[in-house]
## 1
Amino acid sequence: MIIAITSVLAIAIIAFILTIRPRDLPAAEPESPFAHLDDRKAAIYENLRDLQFEYRVGKLSDTDYQNTKKDLQKELATVLAEVDRLKAQLAGKPAVAAPAPAPKPKAERAAETKPIVFVCPSCGATFEKSLKFCGECGKSMKAASA
Amino acid sequence: MAGTSARSTFMRRSGWFAKLEMPVLALLLALAALAQTAAEKPSLDTRRVGMRLACQCGCKDSVATCSMLECGFSKPAKERIARMQAVGMSDQQIIDAFVREYGPGIYLAPPSSAGWVVPYAAVAAGLLVVWWFIRKYRRPRPLPELGTIEIDDPALSKYKDQIEKDLADLE
Amino acid sequence: MENFGSLAILLAFAVAIYAVVASVAGRIKNKPFLIASGRRAVYSVWVLMTLASAVLLHALLTNDFRFAYVAEHSNRTLPTVYKFAAWWSGQEGSLMFWSWLLATYAAVVVFTNRRKHRDMMPYVVAVLSAVQTFFLLMNNFVANPFQMLAVDKLITSVPDGSGLSPLLQYPAMAIHPPMLYLGYVGFAVPFAFAIGSLITRQPGEGWIHTTRRWTLITWLFQGTGIMLGAAWAYHVLGWGGYWGWDPVENASLLPWLSGTAFLHSVMMQEKKGMMKVWNIVLVSTTFFLCILGTMMTRSGLVQSVHAFARSDIGKYFVSFLAIGIAGTIYLILDRLDYLKSDSQLEAVVSRESSFLFNNLILLASCFAVLWGTLFPKISEAVSGDQISLDADWFNRLMVPIGLFLLFLTGVGPLFAWRRTSGESLRRNFQWPGLAAVVLVAALFVAGVRHPYALISFGFCLFVALTVIVEFYKGARSIAAKSGFSLPHAVVELTHRNTRRYGGYLVHMAIVLIFIGITGKAFNLSDTREMAQGDTMQIGHYSLHMNRMDQGENDQYQWHKAIIQVTKDGADLGTLEPEKRFYKASKQGTSEIGLRQRPNEDLYLNFAGMSDDNQRAIIQAYVNPLVFWIWAGGLVLIGGTLVCLVPSKVKMQYARTSVVGVAKTHVKA
């Protein structure tokens, strides 16, 4: 009895492993050649968002904020250029720096219900306290108002 | 004669042991309560001496750390140590007595300096690695393949506007 | 039945080997059918291991004492739940449990990733199956759980088994090993992905994204297992402490420490594409430490309270470790160019540097624990003397390292990524730092003189304040923008970036645990022989022996002391420490009497009877603040669970679409 059961088990296992029909192959998810660049781009946006948040809550000094923001933007531009280069290469065209489709963050924007205290002259963002540089657009708030 | 030589070795070791370890041990009484394994808990004094004696029950542990309950060697040995301490014998005298009886093999050496030096050396080596890492990656390198890109570059200013606009939408 | 079990594990062994070969060959020769059959082999191993485990469990639950394993680790009167726990309480069973867990993990990984990572998955399957093969080798040929008792070639049975070690008959101990194993085994998954990504030179940080959750869950299991182990030691071993630097405890701590380092340093790679080599090294180290930990527990390499029977399985583990480590080192060295860093350090004073120090200290503590644990073996090899390092050694070495780590826990998050100016530092450090100094001064005035305790409490307050300020500032900003109430804003804030704020909660848990550990500096203990009517004093407590009691049941004989506790004259009821003697295993255990309060525990242990058998030996301990260790453990679990919740504001970016290339890849 045991012998019969074990043989059936062994045969079943071997059959399961070895008989694969074409329709059993899982359709692979499409893999974009841009996947790693898109990830990188997303990471940089994420970093920028963090940076703005930290600046707004007052963890960062103005110079730190400005410098780091510039760095991140530079990196972002590099990645976008790399996307274009790869795209041109894939399309079999000579590498020209064609503009890339713009990334579209779909983050919702919170309704601004706070009484307005300080307004950025460049982009209109509002803050509860005085900042040297706008936490939204990064332009100088003082210079424009002066 | 074998006994005396074993004894003199011990004297030398126990010299720094006594000088260095005892005050610290006394300071860290509470911490020393750890490492007790068996349910019977000998006093700290008994434990300290027991740590220097190998249990002969076949467990390869010390008398103090032998985890066997009702162990045929470590239990009476612990009691004996306690009795000897009660009559005022020093740690060294007790250990000598055991060495005389069971031979020098029963003596367990206290941690040698290597026990201390190596972990700190590892920390120091780690610091060197961190220093090396910072030095290496601190050096500004041109960004790969594309060279440095100025954000004012006309080809990239388009990105810049887009980036600014996207950032305004972030929250 | 036993033949069926034996056959199942033997077949599993063959199938696991096939999985390795088929996956690698299929990938190299580019044969999707072979790769798919490798995947199915992984599922088959799981089915076979589940069947084999069912056979063993059936034998345990039906008291089939023909099985040597059952006879050794169970007996008729054992409660059913511990019969089940006997699965992982002995050498052979626990190794099979390991195998089964690994098979389960592998099946889940393969199933959830069956459509993803076409390039690297075959190698992931191969690595997991190779590890599986090793453990099946142990199950089949070294520690077979289906060994039968026999006399003159006839299978026989014994009337009753020798029972489960009574020390293990405790609820926390029944789930402590599975927790630790879930941790030990789980690190195989990130390791397999790291190796797969390395072999196929995947661009980007795909393996980190894929295994992020695995690593966290595994780390959580490991941490929970360690906490349960400490709770078990505290409540069962009866020596008034929770951590004795026992080799087996250390073995579980090692991968947790390096895993913690890994969890931090992957952030560098995710954010900036740095430390790629280092992360591979860390995840490999963690995995091999898990294997080493299993070996230490199983082989009796180093003496320990709860190491299992000594056996020669050590040499198999050593060979496996040697091959695995050598292979990993070769792979890393061969692919250094692929692991080149994407970016550089902008400034020395930055979050990046704080991570470097965090890693340094975590790894240093890991190394120190490893060194101390293996020192008896090392010294034996060098000088011929086995020198064991005791708890004092560990404490003296680890206390300063631990305090520095606590300090970094507070400081790290205050540094900004890329660069932090003095101005930013001042803003973040000023108030928490000042508060910590004030606290230390106040404690000093109040009479606390223990230097480590003062430093520890100071750091604890500092870290706690930085965490609270972080939550407060963020929540205030959200509240200002959206009009939420502050508590609502805190929830909103955490939900927006669960990894970060969950991480802060874990930091808070570390603070609580450190508060609890620091309490040890103020422990009191005393041992007395007490007859009925005797009274002893410890701290503010007065202990009066009301009476002694004894009795017996199927499992054990017991002695109990009923002790009336009063504190400064106020009656606090009775505590009843108990001493048990288990008949089947002929072992004694202690059931402690414990009064647990947030400020301090009163802990009574019935150590035995005096020589004249008239008086009970009562060990009394007052352990301040131990409560906070367990509280910290719960916060740690909660914080890690928060990290696992997906963040609410997950920004999605349009993926780059390609015109003029065969496939378009648009994924919102």
## 2
Amino acid sequence: MNLPIPFIVLLAVISLAGTGFYCLLFTRNLIKVVVALQLIVKGVVLAFVLAGHLQQNESLAQTMAITVIVADTIVAVIGLSLAVQIRQHTGSLDLKALSKLKR
Amino acid sequence: MWYVLIAVGILVFAILAISAKRLLISAIWLAITSALTALMLFLLGAPQIAVIELSVGAGLVTVLFVFAINIAGEEVIGLRSALPLPLVWTSIVLACGLLIFFIFRSLGFVQFPDATNTIAASVLWQDRYLDFLLQTVLILAGVLGVIGLLAHSKDEHSAEEKA
């Protein structure tokens, strides 16, 4: 079994993004939503670095990857603190508990 | 060979992270996935990104998760989607299909420009100065957001003390 390296990395990217999409659409737990976003962004960072590796333009791809990591961390921070606040207000982490407009 | 092992590990730990019942366990599997991703980044020739991913993705974010789960408490909510199932599956298949399509289409157009001899540090500080400024603003926004969202207002405190 001698797969080319970019192909293997692409499989890792697709598996990370795929599990992330699956969890994002299936879960109703607010903290699990942040976990799913983290998984997707890890796939994106891997894809960025692979693209730079293939194009021989590593420095540009790596700076973009750093920006993506920072932005993703801020998203996680804000998302988690929102989840904590929502838990204190509604007493639940369930996404369905948020849809008060239906009732 | 290493790449295959790491890719399989990433898939297994990602699935464990999304299927774990307890949130704390889920956060730990996510940290291990992050560490394996960092290892793959290192093997791809991006040691700086690997270090940042390892320290931020596996370190800081895990601490944040544990902190948030401690405050919010464990709550087991099963994997039952709030959306209708056919819609969910169509979206997942469509998203993954588009991802694979675009990746493999772009592989055909890979061009090899002249290898630039600039190192990542000089690009970061000179060419991508705007990005760097943006990151500074983002970090400031994150700090302000955490202070604003986690802080208790004085009224709540006094109400709790009275009660």
